[in-house]
Design brief:
With about 475 residues, this protein is α/β, with parallel strands linked by helices. The protein has two domains: about 30-370, Alkaline Phosphatase, subunit A (3-Layer(aba) Sandwich), CATH 3.40.720; about 375-480, Arylsulfatase, C-terminal domain. It is built from 14 helices and 16 strands. It binds calcium ion. Calcium ion binds near residues 40, 41, 220 and 285.
Amino acid sequence: MKRSRIALSAGLALVALLAKPQSVHAADEAKPNILIIYVDDMGYGDLGSYGAETKSPRIDRLAAEGVRFTNYLSACSVCSPSRGALLTGRYPNRNGLPVCPNGNPRDPGWNEFVGLPLSEVTIPEMLKPLGYATAAFGKWHLGEMEPYGPRKQGFDEYVGCLYNFPVGKPNVWLHNEESQGKIRFAQAHQKLTDATIGFMKKQKEAEKPFFIYLSHYLVHGPWSPNKEFCTDKEWASYQKKKGRMNPVVLPAMVRELDHHVGLVLDALSELGLDEDTLVIFASDNGPWLPAGSSGPFSEGKYSTKEGGHRVPAMIRWPGRIPAEQVSDAMVSSLDLLPTIAAASGATLPSDRKYDGFDLLPLLTGKTKESPRTEFAYYNGLTLEAIRRGPWKMHLPRKSTNRVYWAGTKGEYANLDHVVLNDLSGDLAEAENLAPSQPEKTKDLERLAAETRAELGDWNVKGTDQPKSSYPGNLNTPNWKKAPRRK
Ligand SMILES: [Ca+2]
């Protein structure tokens, strides 16, 4: 009798345990709100939690309350391909946008040609069938409103300017497709904060889960901080340079960003949504040197050295992801879409290949190992470096075969041999180990050949490269020959 009672209560406990995920908490836990805070041109060394002298307590709160990554790689070292890859979970060469829609300001006809192909399935398109309300606020940079705008790519609502602010000039501020007049860079950040908080409140009232892509213009140029975030020296420097490249005011822009991230996080708390919201903070690419810092890494934006790709990244989800974690596991912006799919219960389309992995087991502490073991460093169409674990190989190249933003100067603009680095002890990629590591060298050469066959190179079309939205070969000098809209 006693035994059967124990068996019965054990059985009931088991039933309760099994039932819990499906019934009691399923609705909330299966559909967390998702907030991606994507910042522009912030280098690895630009936040307090990553060793900067500039204090960034509001952003660093995310690190204290979740995971801070020291080995997170953006899919590209410039804006548009980085953003396309973030929203699709696929390498830029696979999703059809390995270049920037405003790649050449001398060539306005270019913009209409180039954008993230509509055939891609973005994060909001993946989430909408589950009942998510979706919004993009801020920098878009994935093509013109027609045909590539945010509302063609799964976002219900858009507020912001599509592109960067030019130096000294205002930009057209949009609500969906409608112009709201022109505003200046320094006015944009509060508007993004207001739009984000307003959208969160509205969805809370409607009891709908939300996905917000908050894409800040900070800390990209123009270097025009608001006065309240500047020291006297920084403000004097700003007035002298009037928005042109100015390393002196970068800390003020970091403080300003920190303030706005803080306001959004405060609102989330006030709405009681902290535990229902997965917050992801990351930069789109490395710093535009000499403004900003890549910390211990070499080079910055435009480069396939670590300083171009390795950027600050934090993820917070109280109650699900343990606090105060620092992870050195190799992860990428490519992993965010599959992670969001796993967190929300969304199904990935089966008709295409993804380049990311679900990070939830890593984030929740079930494992310390990243599902990611490899990474391909593309610059435009050109495969410049490849990595397996801590081993990274830079591939031979000519400056004439590089994408236009990569330039013809720099240590690796021309390279007539492979360079093998062990990133576990050589963060600056200073010591070439290829001569003493022939087997590692061969292994990575094989991986490069496999990657090139699938995703292409400046002179090779890959087996899984789509027909892109841009015409011709964009790598110098051939991009100049591409057709133009008259
Ligand atoms: Ca950028």
